[in-house]
Amino acid sequence: MLENKPRVVVVGAGFGGLEAARNLAKLPVQITLIDRKNHHTFQPLLYQVATAGVSPGEIAAPIRWILRGRSNVEVIMDEVVGFDLNRKTVQLQDLNLPYDYLIVAAGAQHSYFGHDEWEPLAPGLKTVEDALEIRRRVLLAFELAEKEAVAGGPHPTLNFVIIGGGPTGVELAGTLAEIAHRVLQDEFRSIDPKRTRILLLEGGPRILPTYAPDLSESAVRQLQKLGVEVRAPAMVTKIDPGAVWVGEERIPAAVTLWAAGVAASSLGGKLGAPVDRAGRVMVNADLTVPDHPEVFVVGDLATLKDKHGNPLPGVAPVALQEGRYVAKTIAGDLQKSARRNFHYVDKGSLATVGRAAAIAEFKKIHISGYFAWLAWLFVHIFFLIGFRNRVIVLVQWAWSYFTYERGARLITGDTTLPGWPNAKSDSEPEPPLRK
Amino acid sequence: MLENKPRVVVVGAGFGGLEAARNLAKLPVQITLIDRKNHHTFQPLLYQVATAGVSPGEIAAPIRWILRGRSNVEVIMDEVVGFDLNRKTVQLQDLNLPYDYLIVAAGAQHSYFGHDEWEPLAPGLKTVEDALEIRRRVLLAFELAEKEAVAGGPHPTLNFVIIGGGPTGVELAGTLAEIAHRVLQDEFRSIDPKRTRILLLEGGPRILPTYAPDLSESAVRQLQKLGVEVRAPAMVTKIDPGAVWVGEERIPAAVTLWAAGVAASSLGGKLGAPVDRAGRVMVNADLTVPDHPEVFVVGDLATLKDKHGNPLPGVAPVALQEGRYVAKTIAGDLQKSARRNFHYVDKGSLATVGRAAAIAEFKKIHISGYFAWLAWLFVHIFFLIGFRNRVIVLVQWAWSYFTYERGARLITGDTTLPGWPNAKSDSEPEPPLRK
Predict the structure, then answer these.
(1) A94: contact with B, CB 8 A cutoff
(2) Which residues of B are marked as active site?
(3) Which of A250, A370, B37, B57 has the largest CB neighbor count within 10 A?
């Protein structure tokens, strides 16, 4: 049981919530951190799980293990269902938790722009479960194609279609190209994985639109070198099992992946504060909601404009700085000092494209290719939680780099895919004999 | 496409089937290896996945990757539905595969002795999916207990009941004790994981009955030192959600695991050959079925007596030697030499009990404790497939040994457990306020 100190409830253990909790732990407060999962996920490397490069346990760590030494922090794995800002409580399924300060860092999830029926056909990449589902579909597609080809007939069409040219779509496309064109060589007898086409479809005029135009162009060239077909603008109008439509054009798709949009957690709408079109809470300059200086919103769930009037991007550095700021602000409150506004310090942006391919933007300095990739690699391994994870991911990475092998190529669970002949129905009583 | 050489179809890529395929690959034959999974699982370390020590990708490798260099081997991920021994075909869902030689190595699965309704209540450990399900339940039990305790009331009863005192049951019990009593310390605020009880229930008179009695006794002592309560004989008569019954005694169980029995794959019964009580095919001295010298059965699906009249145990060394023997026998057939009978060479047995605890039996030499554990460790890492896996598992292991941390403590998927209050039903509209 925690002592009688100010109670801070933190909702969500992503970058923002976890950073807030870690920094608050040094103060004379009692902290309750609530998350639906038992683990913090290092989202920037999730695409490596989806593409079988590393195992989930290497980029995700139990929240209570991360905070194990902090005796004034408790962790509850549960789902928050609502808030009562007047009574100052957070509502769980079976319990109401009172707070003195509330930090809501519930993040974002995929958005299908009103086409929720597309979700089972084109999974997105936000959680460990999502990554495992993408991995399952990608690997299974090659297995089903080989099975089909063993029976004879033409070479199955193997298109992987990735919708959305932001950082996630680019990472997935680049890495899938490496899998199809290099990793799987010599492993199949009836299909040729090199005949796989990787298509990256971006609805807007260029991929990686938050970067400078010259870096977008460099990313396109690097993707093409890896064997990815980039199409922008190419607005997807329909997704069927086994196909994606761009206007009147039907593109057959063995696997379709969604990296086109996110929307804020629905918890944002339960705070009684104004939200933007993507459901993000429009916070005050101290990251609080109107009339509630004790309620903060941080990370992807919040939206705030920088000094130029541009909204801060939904990236880890913003969430981390916001989490740290909120802890500092509460520390200031406890000492009765006046609050200062949040200011984001932009240290530059990095996006990986694939093997030895990346872009980096540090204000006026734009870097592409191998050196950008090295910078990306070291930044990402450095920020991984846990020394053991850093060592293991580095070993995995070095191994994959030199051998073109990927260490986690397991298919688990269901063995059917949308758009493929269902293995369990309508098979004639006497199947054909192999030629 | 494979050339016009004798066709060998191998069903199952466990130790026996994979070893047969690897050795056959050197011969002028064309080999088709069929498995329901895309990966070979190193079953002796599956309990490490179930107890969050290593990730699945570290003890399982894609079958087609293992055999990537062998151009006369093709791998099909599919389920065999039957055989036609007269027409010499293997029946898949949508295709019949003709063969000249057939090797059936479909292995075994859990058996609930006619109580199939126990399966959802007490999962067993045979596949990667099983291991992830056990991991989910074990980790989730602590989370649900903490959640319950946060609301107030008495300390939740946290019993882990493992049914079956064979090698798997012993490994699970020893490792779960380490998790409860050491790994999770300092991580919970409202429960004390040390109050977890680990019960190992064996229906027969002693655990590890295939070992010498003095080693069984040593294993009991080592388990007790790790904090496991061993009960033998304790025959389970009923399993409820949340409880296990031994006769009239009801033992509350937060998680129940099944390690009590296996039965051969149902494919054994489709060969028209005699099977024993556990469904294993009673093979000839050359591992073939009666009247079909071209049809071999190896591994856990076969049963054969040694020179003393005792059935060979269902362990990896038997399957490996059988697989190798069959490849050699087919090689002999191709050169028209007479067949020789299979003879198993027993090189000793090793069973691990937990951290620095194991037993080893090399004929008259019986070893217990640290040195048996070291022997067990090195044998098992040596036989892991893939150099990368060996390095990573060794790093993980050394790390866990010195820090008492386990690297793969992720809960994914469903967040409910049988026997626990279901999070989604009957919660009163106004939950209580935390005290």
Answers:
(1) yes
(2) 171
(3) B57
